[in-house]
Design goal:
The chain has 318 residues and is of the alpha+beta class. It has 2 domains: 1-54 and 107-235, D-Amino Acid Oxidase, Chain A, domain 2, CATH 3.30.9; 60-105 and 239-254 and 270-302, FAD/NAD(P)-binding domain, CATH 3.50.50.60. The protein contains 10 helices and 16 strands. Strands 8-9-10-7-14-13 form a 6-stranded antiparallel β-sheet. Strand 15 and strand 16 form a beta hairpin. Helix 9 packs antiparallel against helix 10 (285-311). The longest helix has 27 residues, at 285-311. The chain is globular and about 65 Å long. Flavin-adenine dinucleotide (FAD) is lined by residues 1, 3-4, 59-60, 88-90, 92, 94, 113, 115, 166, 231, 250-252, 258, 261-265, 267.
Length: 318
């Protein structure tokens, strides 16, 4: 999928060589790229880092902190003890349940995003310079955001790129509830094209008529071949970011709508602040995490409030 990214900040925060990842300037917050190009580069850097061990396919089920301040991380495979636990476990965070036990869940924002990528080479003509830039196409409460990103082989030449579409749609809350994708105001999971009910798919196909070409026909093709993802958007307004030796960053800490184009960027700012706090106070982790919280909490709250504000015109809560 697509992501707007400050490569300078990403390089600085991760220490990984990411500054030459191909991007396209589309006139949004930050130059756009394909998330997989970023993921692959970070994975390669991680494999070369001797101090990192990745355990894949394990689910964290809970966190406990003993009176002596040691944290235990319970998983479906094993249990670890740690001096510091950092929850970067997204909008359905488990770690948040330890930090904010009375408010553990992010809340549905009132709309789902239908997202997909289109091979530019499958369009009758490549995207014009105008169509490659960010387009905000509004119809009532619905919003379609489009732009070009580098191709899957990192090619940024016209004709070789990908077109990215994100369609904000608030008409399906009852369907999402009926199918267990929403439980109350909690988002349980995303919805993949092949799993979407035919009736809803036809509603979407009919609704493409309101989008301009070349996006209209390309989106129709993606929908008809069920190559898209439906992501119900969740938001979380934090009142704290740490508790003792446990902290959270990224969407776990402050889930926001993609309309802000700022979720990943703020995860990097979290890490930057966290590292500075740990360098300043190396011998007292809870105090360092409290300093991290002080430096980030108000900014994170402001971001979530902005997210609610910009998302409100596209949301319904029926
Ligand atoms: C359509 C779209 C467009 C976006 N565009 C932008 C943009 O242009 N710019 C921007 O800055 N941001 C953007 N964002 C937001 C950005 O993608 C997120 O903010 C970012 O991915 C958050 O990263 P994260 O690591 O905090 O969470 P995630 O990416 O959700 O990662 C969490 C990870 O934790 C794992 N996990 C969860 N629970 C457990 C558990 N119990 N045990 C073990 N593992 C667990 C998950 O499997 C996942 O791998 C966009 C988001 C979307 C949906």
């Amino acid at each position: 999928m697509s992501i707007g990214i400050d490569l300078g900040l990403l390089s600085r925060v991760t220490g990984a060589p990411t500054w030459d990842i191909p991007t396209i300037e589309v006139g949004f917050n930050a130059p756009m790229t394909l998330w997989r190009l970023v993921y692959d580069r970070l994975s390669d850097a991680m494999k070369r880092e001797r101090l990192i061990t990745a355990h894949r396919g394990i689910t964290v089920t809970g966190i406990q902190v003993s009176p002596d301040g040691r944290a235990s991380v319970h998983t479906d495979a094993d249990e670890w003890t740690a001096d510091l636990v950092l929850g970067a476990d997204g909008h359905r965070s488990t770690v948040r349940g330890h930090i904010e036990p009375r408010r553990p869940h992010a809340e549905y924002s009132g709309y789902i995003l239908w997202r997909g990528l289109i091979e530019e080479s499958t369009l009758r003509i490549p995207l014009s310079a105008r169509a490659a830039r960010v387009g905000w196409h509004q119809h009532g409460k619905q919003l379609l955001v489009t732009f070009a990103i580098p191709g899957s082989d990192a090619d940024i030449r016209p004709g070789h790129r990908l077109g990215s579409f994100t369609w904000f749609d608030a008409r399906h809350n009852a369907y999402l509830r009926m199918n267990g994708i929403l439980q109350g105001r909690t988002v349980v999971h995303s919805l993949y094209g092949p799993d979407l009910d035919d009736r809803v798919l036809h509603t979407l196909l009919d609704a493409t008529i309101r989008w301009p070409n070349p996006w209209r026909s390309a989106i129709r093709d993606r929908l008809a071949s069920r190559q898209f993802v439906g992501t119900p958007v969740a938001e979380y307004l934090p009142t704290r970011l740490s508790r003792g030796p446990v902290a959270m960053i990224g969407d776990a800490a402050h889930a926001v709508s993609p309309v802000t184009g700022a979720g990943f960027h703020n995860a990097l700012l979290d890490i930057d602040a966290l590292v500075r706090a740990l360098v300043d106070i190396p011998d007292d982790i809870p105090r360092a995490l409290a300093q991290y919280e002080r430096s980030r909490l108000q900014l994170a709250q402001r971001l979530v409030r902005q997210s609610r504000e910009v998302g409100r015109p596209h949301a319904t809560h029926d």
